[in-house]
Design goal:
With about 180 residues, the chain is an alpha+beta fold. Helices cover about 30% and strands about 30% of the residues. It has a single domain, classed as Aminopeptidase.
Length: about 180
């Protein structure tokens, strides 16, 4: 996989390649609506600090990961079970980076690309912790994150327009 190139993209650069991102997203999440993905992502792209890392082979996009810092008014932790103290879920816009989507094309899987994408994204962040939301129906993916050092915090209901009725939230310290 030495021929794979990784690149960090800001909001404008992410918008510019959004159709490529959707092609990989469609292959990775065939069960989810592309319109829903577009609506969610363009809302998320309004948040300063949104960042993408891409993986390319011979110029073609083969994987990506992106996320954004949680703002003060975030609903990320709303409805968390078991509940946490208010100081655990308090956000400032600079405390927690939420990883939103991670995907690798099927033919490039099993070679460490997802791990490298995640490491590349998180090692440059200045927040104190990162979080992600996983599907309760994907235990293999949850075990993958656990092996990578993420810890389960609890379950939240899926919000309006979400892909799931519930999400299991994970957290990892970045310091
Ligand atoms: C999940 C996904 C991103 C992993 O991509 P990948 O590049 O194959 O991942 P890696 O090669 O870095 O391997 C990740 C881990 O999964 C394991 N793994 C890889 N392929 C596997 C397979 N076919 N079966 C079981 N485990 C596998 C690896 O052993 C590795 O474990 P380790 O890090 O403890 O060694 C990819 O399968 C994907 O896009 N899936 C669909 C979208 C999705 O579910 N995204 C995550 C939820 S948002």
């Amino acid at each position: 996989m030495d021929d794979v190139e990784f690149e960090h993209l800001d909001r404008d650069a992410t918008r510019a390649i959004f159709s490529q991102i959707q092609t990989v997203y469609a292959a990775a999440f065939p069960e989810y609506s592309l319109d829903g993905h577009r609506d969610r992502t363009f809302r998320q792209l309004k948040v300063p600090g949104f960042e993408t890392v891409t993986a390319r082979s011979n110029g073609a996009l083969i994987g990506f990961v992106y996320g954004l810092p949680l703002g003060e008014a975030t609903g990320w932790w709303r409805g968390l079970e078991p509940p946490r103290a208010a100081d655990y879920t308090a956000e400032t816009g600079a405390r927690t980076f939420a990883v939103i989507d991670l995907a690798v094309l099927p033919e490039y899987r099993g070679r460490g690309l997802a791990r490298r994408l995640m490491d590349e994204l998180l090692q440059g962040r200045t927040e104190e912790r990162a979080t992600l939301a996983t599907s309760p129906g994907k235990p293999d993916i949850q075990r993958m994150y656990q092996r990578w050092g993420w810890r389960e915090v609890g379950r939240v209901p899926g919000g309006e327009g979400a892909t799931q009725t519930a999400f299991d939230l994970y957290v990892i310290s970045l310091r």
